Structure formats: C-alpha cells, structure tokens
Amino acid sequence: MGLKTAALKKSIWVFHVACSPCNNCDIEILDLLTPRFDVERFGITLVGSPRHADALLITGVCNRHVKPRLLETYRATSKPCVCFLFGTCAAGGSIFKGSYNVPDFVDEVIREEDPNAIIVYIPGCPPKPEAMIAGVVKALSVL
Amino acid sequence: MQVFYYLIFPGFTFAAIAGLLTAWLDRKVTARVQYRVGPPWYQNFADVMKLMGKEVLLPDNARKTGFLIAPIVALSAAILSATMIGLYNWNWNSGFVGDIIVFWYVLAIPSTMLILGSAASGNPLASVGSSREMKLLLGYEVPFIIVIAMVINLTKTISMGEIIQYQYAHGPILYSLSGVIGFIVALLCVQAKLGMVPFDAPEAETELGGGVFYNYSGAALGAFKLSKAVLLYTLPIFLISLFWGGVQIGNGIGILWVLLKYILIVVLITLIRNTNPRLRIDQAVRFFWGKVTVLAIIAFVLSVLGL
C-alpha cells in the first residue's frame, strides 16, 4: 500500500449527490457530522464541489432527468473515487422499481460510464448512521 | 545557502510542517467549540498528501495556463513570505531597507493568484468567488497599510529587522494604546487575508460550494491548501514581529514565550471564526473601509502623539 492510498484512507472528502431523494437519507447523513457521531475524527468532511471529492454520497432513485446530471457529476469527480449508494432507493430501486420514470438503477448508470467504479451499497430506509460508518469502513478496506 | 533558506529551514519544509500543524490546531479548537472530538494531529498532512496524488481535472472552458500556474505562484509567494519573516527574526541584519513594503506585496500575491486562477477556471460560481475575493482584497488592504504605517512611524524605520530591534530595546509596541488598537485592526485584516469565517465570502462552502476553489482538483487544490496553511503560520508570526517583540529565543526559555504568543493569536483567530456568522461582501467591505479604517487612523494619530 502506497503513501497515496494511506493518505486517501485517512482523508475522505465527500460530495452529496441528491438524485431526487425524499430527504430522509439526507437528514441521516447530516447526523454523521453532529457531535454524537463526528466523522471528522476519521478525516471525513463534506465539500461543496465534486472536483474536491473522493466519495460521492448518492441518495434517491435515478430518474430520466437525473441521469445526465449524475453522469456529469461522476465525470467531474477527480479519480480515484468511491460511490456510496445510500438508502434502499439508490441501492435497489425500492418501491420505485419498475416504475415508468425510473429506467435505470444508479449503479447501472455509473457502471455504464466507468465499469471499474467502486460502488458501496448501504440499504435501509433510511440507513442508521452506524450502518453508514460500517459501509465507509468496508469501502476503505477495498481501496 | 539561499536555496537552503528557501527550501528547508525558515522556508518550505519548516513552514509547511508548522502551518499544517497550526491548521490542525484550528480544526481541533473548532471541534471542541462545537463539542466534537475533532481530527487527529496528522489530518492536514493526510489531506495534502492525498490531494497531491489525485487526478487534476482540466475544465473544457478554462484558460489552462493561467489555471495551472496560479496555485504554483501562490504557493511560492507564501513560502517566500515565510522565509523572509523567518530570516528577519533569526538574524536582524539579514534584511534590506524597505523590506516591510516588499513583504506586504508578497503577502498580497496569494490572494491575487486566487483571483486570477478562479477567473481562469471558467465557472460561474468561481467567478463570483473571484470578484468577491477582489473586493475583499481592496477592503482589507486599506487599514492594513495604515497600521503598517503606524508601526513605521513609531519605530522610524522601514526594515523588519530594525522594527524587531527597536522593540527589543524599547519594549513591544503592543504595550501602548496605539499598539493595542493597531493590533486589533491587524488581527481583523489577518482574519480576512486567511479567508476565515466572518470574511469567507469568496469561498463560502455552503453558498458557492468552494467559490474560488470550485474548479480546482488534485495537486492544484493541494498547492492552494498548502499556501493557505503556510500563510496561517506566517501571518501570526508577522503580527508577533510587528507588535509583540518578535521571535526572541533568548536563553532558551524565550521559545516557550514565542510559542505561547503564537498559539494565543491562532486560537484568537479560531474563536473569532467560530463565534461569528459570514458577512455579505458589501457588509465586509463597509466594515473594513468604515469602522476598521477609522480605528486604524485613530491608532496612527495616537502614535503621532506618542501614546
């Protein structure tokens, strides 16, 4: 493991991509930054631009209007980067599966752009903050 | 020897390590203020190391040369300022006549490069940040130069080394009425120079998503972050040299005093940043050209009267 990978593991900057979510997962993500969980202990910070990000937190289903924007965001992220699919909607479509406005799943869209993308699924409606931290730890062990 | 000064001791290596540790102190104090635990001490080293290893994305509509040169020039200017201030404190006679004016110019280069680099990046958010950075620069330089003029007037010299020498002989400038007012004004200007919260409209993480840094990624962003960290080390040392007697090692115990003064100034900057909301750019410019400039002029008049 090189120095770069070691540094990357200690400093994950995340960009929050809201692909038409119901805001439930988004509120749980904000819990991670509060004093109770405080992910800044592990160097995880929210950034405002995809160009700074090492990880994309994707919530919600990928509908027709979101798809080009999601791809654009993924292209704008500097590699290497990890995609976290937060919540059942992003991970597997949830109740919107097979709906007329949801042609693709988020992971399929990202694989279309980059077949080797690192994708982490964190199901739950919404996933608990503990589950999110466990998912991040698993993703870091893959890097 | 010049290369050694620039790259190793008061320059790049030392200033980067000191600056990144100071940036950690800033983040840790912020975390404690918000009742969090905060990052470990090596956090900023990991951040910069990671950014150096990442891909640099070039936006299609960016002016590529200006976009990539700006962070390099900003970093080298920040290192140059750290080298100058370190050498003047190490050896009082190492400067030249008028070096405080050169130092003032060198301190303005990183902000100028932020303006140029973000304007070249071809992004609407970055160009809004760029115009705000320009207004902020025009705002805080007015009281800053008046305060420097006040120090020059008190010490009757325009050389950094002689200003420190004067304070060694006559006691620090801070311990006079004009010195206290001047120090407060200079501290506010330093806050704006560092882009810390009441004056962080150019970056505005929640509003512009990074503002001037919006289109920077990888090593270019890392260079900007490193130049900010080096400035976070340089500017408190500059305040100490200008007002608080400089870095006098003395018989060994002096290093503790310097460290105490340094940490006090950094924590003061951090507390100001944690207890204030962001000012709009017009409020910030009005603040600097109004109240702060008036305070600076009062300090200058008091120094002419000899108080």
Notable features of this structure?
heterodimer; A: alpha/beta; Rossmann fold; five-stranded parallel β-sheet; B: mainly alpha; 11 helices
CATH class of chain A: Alpha Beta
- Looking at how many chains there are and whether they match, the oligomeric state comes to heterodimer
**Which CATH architecture of chain A?**
3-Layer(aba) Sandwich
CA(first)-CA(last) distance of chain A:
9 Å
Which two protein chains have the largest interface (Cβ within 8 Å of the partner's Cβ), and how many residues from each? A-B, 22 and 34 residues
Number of separate domains of chain B: 1
Secondary structure tally: strands of chain B: 0
Strand content of chain A: 15-25%
Structural class of chain B: mainly alpha
Strand order of the largest sheet of chain A: 2-1-3-4-5
Low-confidence residue ranges of chain B: none
The overall strand count of chain A is 5
For the largest beta-sheet of chain A, the strand count, sense and barrel status come to: 5 strands, parallel
* Helix proportion of chain B: over 70%
Give the total of domains of chain A.
1
Order of helices and strands of chain A: HEHEEHEHHEH
CATH topology of chain A: Rossmann fold
Mean pLDDT of chain B: 89
Shape of chain A: globular
What does this entry look like structurally?
The complex is a heterodimer of chains A (143) and B (307). With 143 residues, chain A is an alpha/beta fold. Chain A has six helices and five strands; from the N terminus they run αβαββαβααβα. Chain A has helices at 3-10, 24-31, 66-76, 87-92, 106-113, 129-142; strands at 13-18, 45-46, 55-59, 82-86, 118-122. A five-stranded parallel sheet of chain A has the order 2-1-3-4-5, sandwiched between helices. In chain A, α2 links the parallel β1 (13-18) and β2. In chain A, α3 packs across α5. Chain B has one domain (2-305). Chain B is built from eleven helices and no strands. Chain A binds chain B through residues 3-4, 6-8, 10-11, 35, 38, 40-41, 43, 47-49, 51-52, 54, 76, 78-80, and chain B through 27, 31, 34-40, 42-43, 45-47, 49-50, 52-57, 205-206, 208-210, 213-218, 221.
